[in-house]
Amino acid sequence: MRNPLADRIRPQTVEDMVGQQHLLAEGKALRRIIDSGEVPNLIFYGPSGVGKTTLAEILAKRSNKYFCKLNGTTASTADIKDIIAQSRTISAINGVLLYLDEIQYFNKKQQQTLLEFIEDGSITLIASTTENPYFYVYNAVLSRSTVFEFKSVSPKDIEPAVERAFAFLAQEGGLEYDLEEGVVHHIACGCGGDVRKAMNSAELCALASKTVDNKRVVTMETARQLTQRSAFKYDKEGDEHYDIISAYQKSMRGSDPDAAIHYLARLLEAGDLPSACRRLLVCANEDVGLAYPQLIPIVKAAVDTALQVGMPEARIPLANAVILVATAPKSNSAYEAINLAMADIQSGKSGPIPRTLQNKHFDGEDNDRKGQFYEYPHAYENHWVKQQYLPDALKNRTYYKYGDNKNEQAAKAYWDKIKNSK
User: Fold this and answer.
1) For 285, what's the count of Cα atoms within 13 Å in the CB-facing half-sphere?
2) Which residues in the chain show pLDDT less than 50?
3) At how many degrees (to 10) do helices 77-86 and 108-119 cross?
């Protein structure tokens, strides 16, 4: 059984790699490290299929080190010790470069074992992870490594790789490929920035295409069928999940309805209806708030409807609500006020509740001034009377500042007029 096309066509030099120009272009730090011929301990962080393994293998070859590869999902401490044993053989005279894929699956004890051999120089480590290394990699390993973040590859950069894939398949199989216009672009756009996935899609298209006049004809219909869902990557427990819901709320907060709808679609396509609803409710309260308070029950009704009808119809009330939130006036005045108040409470700033506000109607004999002296606001003109409500320690503290929107400014004008007339 032969290897997948992505392995058979794997680039052998940095120049053959696609994407990652923020790391590999001339003059960039990682490129200078590669060109130096010396390999320090490195951690490659980024999504699947963007060149982490390829670059590790290229680095191993250029450094003349003995290359070993382990996967964090299956490797054990014994595997590490086996590699150390190999480091003492003549085949590893220039040292061992260990490529540890998915290091986030190594537990703390395994990473500590690895650290022992990194420190004594037995191995040079290149680890890769699809998760944030600052959350998943042991601090002592991180402190001895340099982290480089890999990005999803753009369709424009993937297109040459797809063309190269079909050329490789033609040479390998002795067949000419006739690609219908748009096939290469569709595959490049349909892989979600994952070059490996693009290679696999190209190979699937080649296998599924008919041979006409000794030519393998790859149609757009075939490409659509085999790449129709591959553009979407989503892991409810991973960085992608948090990145999407963050972008979703920030797009609504930033009043960009097109971006907000895009991220809503990504959440719904992934089947993550709860996150779509929860962040929408949060945004209505946190970011629209008092600028348009009537929107809050509208959004709640839309969310209730979405949860009641389920998918696919849930997309309709949610789309209405998302566009309303994105295009509504914004105010975070209440959000800021409660944050300030909670910060005071958490730092110990509170004090006894003023006597006038206590739910208490009996004074002890030690109280020289008996009585609660609460003044009932409704007994006064405009239903307001000046009296102290905050504890003495905070009596001049201001938490709420009126937002600069029409709704809050109208309230400010109303109360300024009443309070300043007394």
Assistant:
1) 10
2) 231
3) 20
Max distance between CA atoms of the chain, in angstroms, equals 110
The number of angstroms, rounded, from the C-alpha of 188 to the middle of its chain's C-alpha atoms is: 22
Number of H helices and number of E strands within the chain? 19, 8
For the residues of 370-408, what is the DSSP string, one character each? -S-----GGGSGGG------S-GGGTT-------SSHHH
Is 0.90 topped by the overall pTM? no
* Host H or E run for residue 169: helix 155-173
Q: Is 364 exposed, middle or buried (0-12, 13-18, 19+ CB in 10 A)?
A: exposed
Question: 218-227 burial, b if ≥16 CB within 10 A, otherwise e?
Answer: bbeebbeebb
Instruction: Give helix 29-36 / helix 52-63 axis angle, nearest 10°.
Output: 30
pLDDT in tens, 49-94: 888 888 888 888 777 777 888 888 888 888 887 887 776 665 556 6
Q: Which of 285, 286, 321, 287 is nearest to 303 (CA)?
A: 321
Query: Residue 153: is it exposed, middle or buried by C-beta count within 10 angstroms (0-12/13-18/19+)?
Result: buried
Q: Which of 391, 384, 396, 366 is nearest to 420 (CA)?
A: 384
Residue pair 227/155 in contact by the 8 Å Cβ criterion: no
Question: What is the CA 327 to chain-centroid distance, rounded?
Answer: 24
Instruction: Please give the Cα distance from 243 to 318 (Å, whole number).
Output: 20
Q: What is the pLDDT of residues 296-305, one digit of tens each?
A: 999 999 999 9
Give the bridge partners for 125, in sequence order: 98
